[in-house]
Amino acid sequence: MSNELAQKSIGELAPLIQSKQLSPVELTEQVLANVDLYDGEINAYIAVQKEQALEAAAQAEQEIQSGNYRGALHGIPMALKDILYFKDEKATMGSSIHGDFVAGFDATVVSKLKMAGVTFTGKLNMHEYAWGATTTNPHFGPCKNPWDLTKIPGGSSGGSGAAVASHMAIASLGTDTGGSIRIPASSCGIIGLKPTHGRISKYGCFPLAWSLDHIGPMTKTVYDAALLLELLSGYDPKDPTSVDRPAKKFSGLLEGDVKDLTIGIEEEYFFKNVDSRVDEQVRLVLKQLEEAGAVIKPVSIPSLKQAEFAELVTITTEASAVHHANLLKSPEKFGEDVRFLLEVGELMSGVDYVQSQQIRRKLDLEFAAAFESVDVLISPTLPFLSPPIGSQTVDVNGQELSFLDEVIRFTGPGNLTGLPALSIPVGVKEGLPVGLQIMGPAFEEEKVLMAAALIEQMELMKGHAPNLETN
Predict the structure, then answer these.
(1) E strands within 43-151?
(2) Is 180 a catalytic residue?
(3) Which position among 23, 111, 180, 201 bears the catalytic label?
(4) What integer pLDDT is reported at residue 1 of this predicted model?
(5) Is residue 392 very low, low, confident or very high in pLDDT (cuts 50, 70, 90)?
(6) pTM here?
(7) Per-residue pLDDT tens digits for 310-341
(8) The Amidase domain covers which part of the protein (predicted)?
(9) Which of 156, 160, 201, 251 is catalytic?
(10) Which of 338, 324, 318, 315 is nearest to 96 (CA)?
(11) Is 248 known to be catalytic?
């Protein structure tokens, strides 16, 4: 069976489904056929729900045939990270401790996707409890990068990144506490959007760190990310961190003139110690944007030099608070890497935590000041290319550096400040995708999406795709 349909985006598929030229059943069958073909190697899924998906697709087809079309997501096959609750279904969080946990309600985002008529094909692999960036899961096996099966797909939403990149899902959702949407998006060559903190409800998502957690779309195109963002946005009284801001028609706000775009560059932090292959590709994009009429402007955010300390203390402390009882009771049930990080969190002091929150406040003010003179900030998403599975180090210009130290250097500030940030693929180096990060002002995702749409029009990924047939 050709998987040509499964390679298409929501934006391409929705008109075909609405006009009844494409059957949701046929589309779902193609996606599931790809799961059969590729997932034995890639291991993006924790659980595949074939019968359930085909029944849902048949129902979607019947509804559309009878004139009850619900919108662009109706009949679209998606699979979600196994940290989001579905009523009366298992949510493992990629763990053994919660391996048999059954949720008693739908997550708010799941409820919205159900109302939109999405077909769910299964639950996706992830780093245990979302506390890591490799998706080398000790309980469900490592997820592999579709571009190179010897490399990590990034994490913690690695299954989401791998599934979308290999067309085993048309789109997905991930969670992001230090970069867990953007890191796998960069590693797998797809779009990953972390919205403003509070824009999308986290009710029904198992927490990693309350003040840093986000949910966001992982898609094939910028338009698809915008579609999902507008569907999932909105105030939710069930989530104490939800902010009462009306949803915008983001998918209609992608048009823009590059000549009206002012791009901020923070050289001291966001371009320091970057692998030359990544640096070259990101600077090429900046040069092309400038030649097309964009203004490139240097900015200074001095408190970024303290961001790694603030992110480390905040995420480890809050995560250890979530897992404190289980860490005392059953430490052996955690994977070795997660257990280590939870133990580190137990060592942090109240002074460390308060100092971290003071740094966050300074960062908020400095980023806000920067955005008074620029529309967006651009940087690499990751300072390196995806390393081999099992490696504790990354190669940056011939230097072997700690993966843990390097992986959230550029993504973490977006979590500390809660600002919207998106990773977009901008080329391939040595067979692996390179991601570019765009950050914008709070609750102005349209600026980030518009800049991403302008970059997408450059077609930097044209001719590049995971070589799934030979993997």
Answers:
(1) 45-48, 77-81, 119-124, 136-137, 141-142
(2) yes
(3) 180
(4) 41
(5) very high
(6) 0.98
(7) 999 999 999 999 999 999 999 999 999 999 99
(8) 26-449
(9) 156
(10) 338
(11) no
